Protein 1
Amino acid sequence: MFEHPVAQWGFTLVFVLLLGYSAVRAFVDRAKPVQTIGHALHGVMAADMAMMSWPWWMDLPGSPQTLFFSVATLWFLGMFVLQAGGRLPRRIFGGHGAAHQAAHVAMMLAMVWMVVVMSGSQPSQGGHDHGSMSVLAALTGVVVVVALLVSGVIFVVEFADCVRGAGKAWLGHTGDMASGAVMCLSMAAMCLPMLVQ
């Protein structure tokens, strides 16, 4: 995806740090199954994003990744529906609201889109270049990037609220906001070159 080593190593470092954060949170929240599953799904996503920075990622099979991130999307969509419908309380999600679950849906859908487009499993319109993509794929990509940017901004605003009200927010909640913002904005930055090729 990226040919410049600074970009490759920069994105790799960001996503490895996010993987580490997800692993720590999964361990800390191990007695809370819903949160543990969410952290584990984000850990896999961060690992895949770190690898996606390198050309050899293209040699990895796309179908298992697409299946995994599709299931992860459905998981977070289910959590969103249950929480928005009042069937699951905020405490199960570490104090996060339904909008937080919607942001996770956007991130997992972005993974599905990136894997499908980059692995070449979507039809192009007559071009033989790997960088060519169908109009539908390009429009979907624009929606994905906008959703990631909006989610990233929401996370930044919530992070600022956590920092201002340090007495009310606990470290994990604040860290979740920061890591969510970094994840969304970094994913958007990795998607943009795919749309402008």
Protein 2
Amino acid sequence: MIRREKRTSWSRLDNAAKIFPSTVEKSDTRVFRFSCELNDEIDPELLAKATERAVESYPNFNVVMKKGLFWYYLEHCELKPEITREDKPVCAAIYEEDERSLLYRVTYHRCRINLEVFHVLTDGTGAIMLLKTIVYRYLIYRYSELFDELPVLDNDASLSQKNTDGFSKYYDKDIKIPRKKKVKAFRLRAERLDNNRLSAIEGFASVKSVINAAHKYNTTLTVFLTALYIKALSMEMSVQGKRKPVVINIPVNLRQFFPTETAKNFFGMFSVQYDFLHRDGSIEDIIDCVSTLFKEQLTKENLAVKMNSYAALEHNPFVRIAPLPFKNYVLRNARRISIKSETSVISNVGKVTMPSQFDGLIKSFSVFVSTSNIQLNICSYNDVLQMGITTGYANIDVQKNFFRSLTEQGIDVRIRSNDFYRETNADAENNDRKG
């Protein structure tokens, strides 16, 4: 009798994901974390049940990554996520070469549920979709008696829609990718934390209060926070450092411009820069400069070019036939060159929505992203704005500058961190330092 072996299904990495395995470092694990803080302590058994049920709707997460001759690829597996108490640093490494393991983890700490994801699987939008589903299932199981009718989650995409490769769908070979000369950006230089640890400091403020402060300058929340962050970075610049511009790279959710329900990576990047050597450095001027660049860069036409630049890697015939070790070498070196043109990154995930029936059960959502440099990450839930700054540097002056600038705008900020910065009131700290 001839036995037929069960064939394991596999899938290609999307065009953005191809970059991440080659550029993983001890100082940048390419992992990001989304958290949801509830009002009550987490029941781990119910969280495990909720996670297992939620992942059924996201089969593209149940994969392991393997090396092929030319590319990495994802192999579907029957592994189940283990739900554990949080015991690793924020955004600790997930992918280990030659280890057969899932590319995400779910942990809990007191009232908080954490989802950490290796960027190969998805972007921030895809990850928050899964976390929302986990939290939704958990709250339904935990508080079933509170709901006469089941709340409705705003995500009804089919499995095939979630599995779409947005880059391939919208790739246009006729779009030319212009060559742009890279600028050398100002880069922070400071002592690094031991063992490549990541400092994660977050501030919480009222969305309304930040929007009101932004409106005083006739601008948006994102432009306002970007300008304050640029100003905070400038406070750490020497006279010599100001000869180079501050360059902020900003990821964009391409789903807003190119409709798709994909749960895979589908983002583009644009940058804004400010030259302190030739401009006056006032917050008004920084806002004016950033606002102009946002309007110029955030167009469908411009983002189509950015999107095609990711897809171009796969469509280049010379790259396609190059063996994987050579691709790793090229991509790793390209990354080292590109970061010289970047001062920092700001990632604004935007507004996280959940059914209104959960309002009394959920406190907030948070986001952190691994980095070898420094990065500002933003999200909001109802009227709670979270601003998380991650860095591998021991010095936290930029963080202090940024949160202090918010309090100087009349915004109350609550601050907390992982081991490096005790929870306090930013405004009180500011007054103490003045005194």
